[in-house]
Amino acid sequence: MTIPYILDMIGTVAFAVSGALVGVRKEMDFYGVTFLALVTAVGGGTTRDIMVGKIPPIIFADYNYLIVSVVVSFAVFFYHKHFESKMHLFLTMDALGLGVFTVTGVSVGLAYDVGWAGAVMLAVITGTFGGMFRDILSKEIPLVLQKEIYASAAMLGGIIYCLCHYAGINKSISFILVTSFVFSLRMISLRRKWGLPVVRIKQ
Amino acid sequence: MTIPYILDMIGTVAFAVSGALVGVRKEMDFYGVTFLALVTAVGGGTTRDIMVGKIPPIIFADYNYLIVSVVVSFAVFFYHKHFESKMHLFLTMDALGLGVFTVTGVSVGLAYDVGWAGAVMLAVITGTFGGMFRDILSKEIPLVLQKEIYASAAMLGGIIYCLCHYAGINKSISFILVTSFVFSLRMISLRRKWGLPVVRIKQ
Amino acid sequence: MTIPYILDMIGTVAFAVSGALVGVRKEMDFYGVTFLALVTAVGGGTTRDIMVGKIPPIIFADYNYLIVSVVVSFAVFFYHKHFESKMHLFLTMDALGLGVFTVTGVSVGLAYDVGWAGAVMLAVITGTFGGMFRDILSKEIPLVLQKEIYASAAMLGGIIYCLCHYAGINKSISFILVTSFVFSLRMISLRRKWGLPVVRIKQ
């Protein structure tokens, strides 16, 4: 168990918690809650793998994501009020997850030779598609399209990773650098309520 | 034409009917009704095939699914009231379809070496993703996430099939056993209104 | 740069404009608007490529789609009122795009040996799935399922292309023939408000 893998699992827990909580809030049954946790946790990575032809995709290749999602779903299902009261902790874990998922996304892209812009898109896909599927399944316009610095943090992190890669910088250093950058940017923008511009068209 | 294939087509008819009826109820045009019928019928199998790298996926590999879906759409489009009045028949056919689709899903998973848990997930995907796509396309929270024993019947059926597989039991026997089990569990839970637990959070 | 490629890019601009406008109308942030533009423009082609095993899919294989979508998003974001007032122009470009996308879809299908009906389905997928994803992401029932001659124009165009293909007609001639046919059918049906039949069930 390497450090990146442990951080990846921490991010997976945070993503699964966010999926399971939405399931509980929408009064889904236990299967629905677990499904939403699993989709939120591995939807991004699975889409990424299918898009580059990495078969079998991560959901089948590493059962730890399934195990983590099921365990998290049990916990959230029975103690959801407790989880709701710890939102700050989970937003922090989620920001960490976003940082790690950015790196795994961009790395897979570079390994599968989809070019730097493709690799950056895969960073964004890995970091955001799970949450997008969660929102579609619960009949909401995806949060990631509406506000907050989230996908854009993954995009900037992906670009920095590519620059490090082409500059020949050691992978562990790039990992630490990009994960810290995405994590910090996300945390600061949460605290300062930073967001991208929006056109206000309704009166 | 083997018995499993005939049962598969019966399930396909039932899935296509459920898709076409939703299309008619949402006042979609004839293309929309046919599209919903086809997606409901082969959306699960097609997702399964793409996820394990079985190319071309079932929708292209066997045109009978397309033919059945188009014929069903014509019938439902012109005689939808007649179909609405036969819901009990279609729920029975649907339960049969769920049983057969469970077996095809888990078999493909074992053949493509995604491990037992992966094979069980593919049973659930094959049995439920078509209906999930139908609900997303008609702007509803997927029924399968909300109530009734549906995905969980496919999951249990998939686990039983894997146990039979590792115990070296003949495939035809496993097929009969699992299809009957899923069919019966689904029918009984429909009649008794069984469901998985839900957390009630609204007052 | 061949003529078909230029027409393809014109269609991509039109599809990206329609995505970006929906993003602005739903008050998404700049990332959301760009994402919707990109998904609308290449969602169909990317789904087609994944379904036939053409890896990497078009979104990664040709960056011009990404560049066009980002440039369009900037323009729509800052001058959306200007774009809204030019709807007739964009509907014309969109009809042209539908014609070109029909041909690319059916050609990929024939090249990847999915049979004529599979190739026709890929024409429809290439022409319509981008817009369908756009509508799902903005919590609307996909327009293409509800009214107007749109998917059916791609379907007829796909069938004509297959007939030309099996009759051994030159590809450039088939391209011109099918693109003009789909474009004209779409434009006429827009002007005459043609649509497929719908069952009216609400009082």
UniProtKB/TrEMBL annotation, chains A, B, C:
Pfam families for this protein: Gly_transporter
Segments traversing the membrane: 6-24, 31-51, 63-79, 91-110, 116-137, 149-168, 174-190
Record keywords: Cell membrane, Membrane, Transmembrane, Transmembrane helix
Membrane topology: Multi-pass membrane protein
GO cellular component terms, A-Z: plasma membrane
Ion transport listed as a keyword: no
Glycine transporter domain: residues covered: 5-80, 92-165
Major site of localization recorded for this protein: membrane
Keyword Transmembrane helix: yes
Entry's localization field: Cell membrane
InterPro entries linked to this entry: Gly_transporter (IPR005115)
Superkingdom of origin organism: Bacteria
Signal sequence segment: none
Family of this protein: Belongs to the UPF0126 family.
Name the UniProt record assigns to this protein: Trimeric intracellular cation channel family protein
Lineage, uppermost ranks: Bacteria, Pseudomonadati, Deferribacterota, Deferribacteres, Deferribacterales
